[in-house]
Please model this.
Amino acid sequence: MIYFSKIEDDEQPLRFTVNRGGMLVLRIALKSNFVAPAVLQPRLGDWVAADGTILEAKPRITPAYVYASPDSTTHITIAAPIPATAEPRQLWSSALHFSSYRQSGIKVLIEVADADNAEGNIDEYFVDIAFPRERPDAGEAGNNSINQTEQTARLLAMMAGLEVLPAKWLVAEMVLSLCERGMQVAEEEEYRVLAEKLAKTRFFKNAVLVFSSAQFVHWVLVGLSISSGLHAVTARKKRSSRMFHNWEEWLMNLAGHDIEKAGSGKDDLQFPQEQHYETVAGRIGMEPDKWLLYMLLGLMQVSPRQKEVITQLCEQAPDSKKARPAGKRKPKDILNEKGSLQR
Model:
């Protein structure tokens, strides 16, 4: 005989009437409401009677594994023989598990029919099961689980974006953010003195030569121009965020997304005015020594470890009070100084 059943949560058992010596066939349709693909392995446990008797289920399951993509329906077939020794009206219990999803399963109950049915040696049931199967709490009964799915999907989509993130543009924006922070503290007495010492170190002079040789300033400005062009084309609103700001906003907005509860409120945080990187780049100019100085000062603000290292380098700077040898003029800038790469 053919029957239909629909399972909506873990507490609802599957109950079947079977003939002893027959075959229980479950044709299960799995509806995936997950926001990400999942691999499920169905398992049917042994039969247990009320008196503690245990009978091996010996099910045959096809396919052994199911790949459930979001918003899809897959099908499995389970065939389990019913022992010929089962007594009429006897109740047997088992559980249908799905490995990699949860340890708990759907309770399965079978009751042996009073008399053998020659035409019903195969008892076939069609069952619909939706994942995930948990019901919301009573206080959240009015919330739509779709809200939870959409919020979680947004978070996962942003994480998946890491795979295709154009690192060049992101690094350019991060360098400019560090430079902007460095410019803000450069006029403070502590950092003004530190900058003067830093400019005299061999480390700083070598780094400026490397920046210049590698066309670092040009590389940053090219990345900035490409990023600006893309945002000018794709911006949906006037205050369109750049790539770095997009990720900053996404990270901070996690505070308003409780993915453990459906329908949680969304309270966007208010951010200060967005940085205008073109203005920052224009104020710095094309001198690689200024880019390096402001970037290092900015790095000291966000990394205590780097601040300690740079401070130690500044303490090793040569004393400015030492007299310059006669006949030698101070070079116009670091790039005109000879021997900067000497140790």
